[in-house]
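Section 5.1 Outputs to date
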Amino acid sequence: MSLPKVVPTPNNDLGEFLMIRMRSSVAVLGCVLCSAAAISAQERDRTFLTADGELLPHSEAPVVRAVRASSSIQINGMPDEAAWADATPMTVFTQIDPNEGEPVSQPTDVRFLFDDDALYIGGRFYDSGPIMTRLARRDAGVSDSDQFTVSIDSYHDHQSSYRFTTNPSGLKRDQVSGDSSWDPVWDVASTITDEGWFTEMRIPFSQLRFTPQEEMLWGIQVERTIRRLEETAMFSFTPKLERGGVARYGHLTGIRGIGAGRRLEILPYVGVSAEYIRQEPSPQVTFANPYRSGSDYFGRSGVDLKYRLGPNLTLDATANPDFGQVEVDPAVINLTAFETRFQERR
């Protein structure tokens, strides 16, 4: 859009010139506001492409409903409590690899429960072939293992997400918006049977950030990887040539009557150690240490504190930290000409 350029002349005095320039500025501002409104309308009408190629509004993305648990859930890797039977099964998964758009090749059943404190996820991954798995340290990438991943957009802002991954060996991998240094407190257990493998997750609401409402509407994505088939299938399907990510997640509904969990978490620790030293003189040592009794005991204690000041701000504090629990850099054999870079964990 181009606007006429006006300059003062003998026929239009300075006042008229300023008036015309003001009208031009108002016209430009109106164009900007119209563009912003159009972008906002596009966001509201965000489209979602189904596996059949049908274009639908994002409000019609696939939906799964969480159900309040009618009994306690024990995280043992077997979702066989009676409460799981009441949950809505998520069984429709679509391949992204190797056969894009085709249904998942092995039966898959994922269900969601919740109580006042946590979200529970139970997965049944049936498989007619051998299960591929490997045990690894936390946050390690295991490309040679079957995997199950749940991603949660708890703010439902289509921008950020919490990602939880496990495998048949009960591996733990967690990320927040791609940052793997985030280590929340959550539980997971997996079991391998003749039918396939099964898993249970417990994610406390205190580890997530969300705006409390009467009933939550969260974005949800669930992925299953069958390594022996090089197959990846997901709940909310996005073709490879389409822009995916958090904006294309499905919807998790049904969670209601919950709070943000505990605001304060305190984790104290105590430790003891003992040293036993022979104090008898020897040819190398002609005298005993007068400050050591030969049987010495040492103790230490401390506390870690986490306090949530607001939905997006958490205070972390520690008194006399136990440096023996500091995570060290993993052992790596580098046979390339490039440097190995580690995350700063200290």
